[in-house]
């Protein structure tokens, strides 16, 4: 009858009590079950959690999604060191930056991808988001800082693009126009007010076309009609001292011009028509006010008349004339 492993181990322990260990050891190589167990080993090297609950991200699904979609720089460095890829953080950062840039260009098709536009946008965004030390770095270093701090996003890039576009500081596609910067607009205004009207229009077109020299062929090219109209209207606003460029006035002049190309004489005639229309409207408003005056309203006294300004006296005068005329149209009047 064979002994079990437990019985064999018990017998060996009992017999070993009276055996001198210094005399010689018992050869147990033929009995593997009696060998001491090997040291415990584990495949876990400490880099990963021992349990799915052994992580701060397990308590918040939002934090976990945020970490997966946008891991922080420290985590990327740790992952890179653990996998033996020291450039892992830079590689992830570059891919993230390229992804944001592609989505920005898709959302803003009018953006022209030139080095000047890229550098200008990065410097502007860095000025508003980074500290002074980070602003002194190269363009690539500034972009890396913007990505790490979470400022390199499509909304931030779009806001920067629209602001710079409004200031006329970005390159544009060939054949298209841009808005003038504040300095360019002031230069055109100074030229127009100095009497150099044609030169002012030419300078406006040159700036709007991003340095392209205007030529007579542009006047007959429908593609440049909008730019030419904008230049003429801008110079007209500069040289017409009594013109107030409100949206209402501009809308009236555009309706007056219709489909005709804008010229200075056309706009000047349109402005005279607009002024005449406003004067008729103001007179009509005054007459309506007097028509709505109650019959029992007492006329002003001499003391009240002396206290009135010139405009009020003139209004009172016209109102009195209208009342005088209406008195003849009443049933007891001569014109009834």
Please provide a written account of the structure.
By secondary structure, this protein is mostly helical. Among the domains are: 87-171, no CATH class; 182-283, no CATH class; 299-336. The chain contains 15 helices and no strands. It has helices spanning 5-15, 61-69, 73-82, 88-107, 115-129, 132-135, 139-148, 154-166, 182-193, 197-208, 225-239, 247-257, 264-291, 302-306, 310-329. The longest helix has 28 residues, at 264-291. It is elongated. The protein starts with a helix and ends in a 7-residue tail after the last helix. The model is unreliable at 328-336 (pLDDT under 50).
Percentage of residues in strands: under 5%
Q: How many H/I helical runs? A: 15
Structural category is mainly alpha
Rounded to the nearest angstrom, the radius of gyration is: 44 Å
| Unreliable stretches | 328-336
Keywords:
single chain, 336 residues, mainly alpha, 15 helices, elongated, disordered C terminus
In a nutshell, what does this entry contain?
With 336 residues, the protein is mainly α. 58% of the residues lie in helices and 0% in strands. Among the domains are: 85 residues, no CATH class; 102 residues, no CATH class; 38 residues.
């Amino acid at each position: 009858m064979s002994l079990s492993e437990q019985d064999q181990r018990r017998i060996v322990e009992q017999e070993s009590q009276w055996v001198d260990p210094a005399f010689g050891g018992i050869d147990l190589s033929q009995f593997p079950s009696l060998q001491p167990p090997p040291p415990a080993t584990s495949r876990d090297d400490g880099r990963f959690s021992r349990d799915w609950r052994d992580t701060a991200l397990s308590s918040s699904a939002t934090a976990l999604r945020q970490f997966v979609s946008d891991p922080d720089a420290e985590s990327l460095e740790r992952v890179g060191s653990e996998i033996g890829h020291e450039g892992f953080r830079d590689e992830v950062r570059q891919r993230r930056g390229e992804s944001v840039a592609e989505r920005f260009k898709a959302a803003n098709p009018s953006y022209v991808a030139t080095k000047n536009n890229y550098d200008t946008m990065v410097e502007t965004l860095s000025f508003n988001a980074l500290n002074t030390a980070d602003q002194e770095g190269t363009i690539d270093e500034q972009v890396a800082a913007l990505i790490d701090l979470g400022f390199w996003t499509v909304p931030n890039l779009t806001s920067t693009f629209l602001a710079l576009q409004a200031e006329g500081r970005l390159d544009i596609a060939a054949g298209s126009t841009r808005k003038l910067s504040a300095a360019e607009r002031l230069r055109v205004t100074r030229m127009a007010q100095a009497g150099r009207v044609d030169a002012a229009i030419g300078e406006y077109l040159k700036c709007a076309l991003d340095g392209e020299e205007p030529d007579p062929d542009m006047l007959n090219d429908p593609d440049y009609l909008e730019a030419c109209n904008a230049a003429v209207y801008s110079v007209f606003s500069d040289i017409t001292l009594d013109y107030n460029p409100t949206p209402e006035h501009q809308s009236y002049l555009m309706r007056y011009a219709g489909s005709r190309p804008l010229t200075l004489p056309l706009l000047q005639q349109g402005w005279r028509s607009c002024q005449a229309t406003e004067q008729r409207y103001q007179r009509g408003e005054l007459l309506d006010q007097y028509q709505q005056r109650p019959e029992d309203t007492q006329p002003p006294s001499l003391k009240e008349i002396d206290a009135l300004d010139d405009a009020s006296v003139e209004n009172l005068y016209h109102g009195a004339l209208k009342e005088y005329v209406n008195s003849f149209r009443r049933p007891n009047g001569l014109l009834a």
